Amino acid sequence: MFAISLLCTGCGTGMTVVALMSPSISQVSPQVVTAGTPSVTVTVQGTNFQSQAALTVNGDAVPTTVVNSTTIAANISGTKLAQPAVAQLQVRNSNGGQSNQVPLTVTNALQSPSALSITTTQLPSVQVGTPYKVTLAAAGGTTPYQWSVASGSLPSGLTLSSAGVISGTPTVSGTSTFSVSVTDSTSKPQKQAVTYSIVVTPVQSTPAALSISATALPSGQVSTSYAAALNASGGTPGYTWSLASGQLPAGLALSSAGVV
After folding, report:
1. Left, alpha or beta for 36 (phi > 0: left; psi -120 to 50: alpha)?
2. Can you give the pTM of this predicted structure?
3. Chain segment 178-234, per-residue pLDDT in tens
4. Helices (H) and strands (E) in the chain, counts
5. From the CB of residue 241, how many other CB atoms can be counted at a distance below 10 Å?
6. Partner residues linked to 252 by β-bridges
7. DSSP state letter for 157
């Protein structure tokens, strides 16, 4: 605001003309606020801010602190930030001067990622010397996931990749118990761990071919008790015997244990 005095000869007293200098906004911080924020303090920079200037939001004045003629700070309550919208900010001086309008964007609230969890509950067993490959699975959080062994060790010959793939060829039989952890990619990473066991069985040897050792049986006599044990080899004991064809002499029988 400035004043101009006008004097003339014979005009009596002079005339003073007062001109208003309107405030002007050059910068607002922040210009984007998340919907649902309880309140926010906005810093406004510009020119010609009077000591009694006030910031308005869509025409409504809010509590304002004038730092100096180029800076003010104002508090916008949560009621004006409840829903996504574009609000118009304006500085109004006590003499009625008004600044240009600057938008304040109220955006949708960010969706929190769901809880991270490991969905693979158990791991299959494997035989020594047999290739093995299992991909661990997780849900929730934000992909990509990063997997690692948290404690213990995998069976000899197996490894866990950062992508969650257990692979390799086990070299030693036994049961290995270990814990793995998974971490997601959110700005504040979530982490979960689970304990697994993998049973590695030994290589099963192929049994020898089954064969019957006895090819002839001793003679018997009528009305005389008779007993002869049949013998076999190979295969896997115990054996079960049965009559395949023909008939034994009257009065004799073959037990499942191979005794006539």
Report:
1. left
2. 0.44
3. 999 999 988 789 999 999 999 999 987 777 788 887 778 888 888 889 888 888 887
4. 0, 22
5. 16
6. none
7. T
